[in-house]
UniProtKB/TrEMBL annotation:
Key words, A-Z: CBS domain
Pfam families recorded: BON, CBS
Organism ancestry: Bacteria, Pseudomonadati, Pseudomonadota, Alphaproteobacteria, Hyphomicrobiales
Taxonomy, superkingdom: Bacteria
Sequence ranges assigned to domain CBS in this UniProt record: 7-65, 94-150
Limits of the BON domain: 156-223
Keyword presence, Iron: no
Name of this chain's protein: CBS domain-containing protein
Length: 242
C-alpha cells in the first residue's frame, strides 16, 4: 500500500503568524493533535503539535535547568527555551524541520520514518505543497502487516476511495480526519464524529458508491464538551469478542 491509499486529504493548516491561542482552539475543536503550517503561497514551512504546548509559561511548566547545565548549554539554549515558552505565534513554537513523504511512499517506509523520527504524523507533499497527511493510528502497524500479506488495492479500489471521500467532504456532517481504506471493494471508515447521526450518514454514503461490497465502521464519537469518546459499535463488539 502507498500513502495516497490511506492518507487524509482534508489537511488542517495554519499560517506562521497564527496565534498560539487560535491554533490550540483549532486543535481542540477539530480533535486533531497536530497542524501543518503553510506560508501565503501554500508551501509547507512547519508542523505544530500538542507537544509544543507542553512547556508553556501560562501553565507554569516552563523548563527549569540547573545553573551548571545552563552554563554548559550556553545562553543560546536558554533563549530558545524562552521563545518556545512565551512565544505568541505559531512560527515561534513550531517544528520547522519537517519529515515529509510523497503520495507513492510505501506504508512500511512510513511506519519506519515515524518510529525513527518519533513523530505521530507525516505530511504528504507534491512538490512543496501539502496534499494530505498520514497520522499514526492504533491500527497502523496492523495495516502495515496486512499490506505485506495481501495484494495492494486495485485501481478500482482507488477509484471507489476517491468517490467516497469526494461525496462525504461535500457535507457538513463529514467526519473530522476522515480516512477511507478500500481493499477488494470492502471499505473501512475511520475518523471522528460529534453527532451520532453522522455515523449512519457516512455508512450510507459509502454504501451508495458503485463497487462497494461492504462497509466497516470504525468512526469514533467524541463529546465536544467533556472530551469523552466512544469507539464504534463494531469495534466495541470485536473487542468484547476477543
Amino acid at each position: 500500500m502507498r500513502a495516497h491509499q490511506i492518507m487524509t486529504r482534508s489537511v488542517i493548516s495554519v499560517a506562521p503568524h497564527t496565534s498560539i491561542v487560535e491554533a490550540a482552539n483549532i486543535m481542540l475543536k477539530r480533535h486533531v493533535s497536530g497542524l501543518t503550517v503553510v506560508d501565503d503561497a501554500g508551501k509547507l514551512v512547519g508542523v505544530v503539535s500538542e507537544g509544543d504546548f507542553v512547556r508553556r509559561s501560562e501553565i507554569g511548566t516552563g523548563r527549569k535547568r540547573g545553573r551548571w547545565l545552563r552554563f554548559i548549554l550556553g545562553p543560546g539554549e536558554s533563549a530558545s527555551d524562552f521563545v518556545h515558552e512565551h512565544g505568541r505565534k505559531v512560527s515561534e513554537v513550531m517544528t520547522a524541520s519537517v519529515v515529509t513523504i510523497t503520495e507513492d511512499t510505501a506504508l512500511a517506509e512510513i511506519v519506519d520514518l515515524m518510529e525513527r523520527n518519533n513523530v505521530k504524523r507525516l505530511p504528504v507533499v507534491r512538490g512543496d505543497k501539502v496534499v494530505g497527511i498520514v497520522s499514526r493510528a492504533n491500527l497502523l502497524q496492523a495495516v502495515a502487516g496486512l499490506a505485506r500479506e495481501v495484494p495492494d488495492p486495485t485501481a478500482d479500489d482507488d477509484h471507489i476511495r476517491g468517490r467516497i471521500i469526494d461525496t462525504m467532504e461535500k457535507n457538513d456532517w463529514c467526519p473530522f480526519g476522515l480516512n477511507v481504506i478500500v481493499r477488494d471493494g470492502i471499505v473501512h471508515l475511520s475518523g471522528v464524529i460529534t453527532e451520532e447521526r453522522a455515523r449512519q450518514a457516512a455508512v450510507v454514503a459509502a454504501e451508495n458508491v458503485e463497487g462497494v461490497k461492504k462497509v466497516h465502521d470504525h468512526l469514533c464519537w467524541v463529546d465536544t464538551v467533556s472530551g469523552v469518546y466512544l469507539n464504534s459499535p463494531e469495534d466495541d463488539g470485536l473487542a468484547k469478542a476477543s
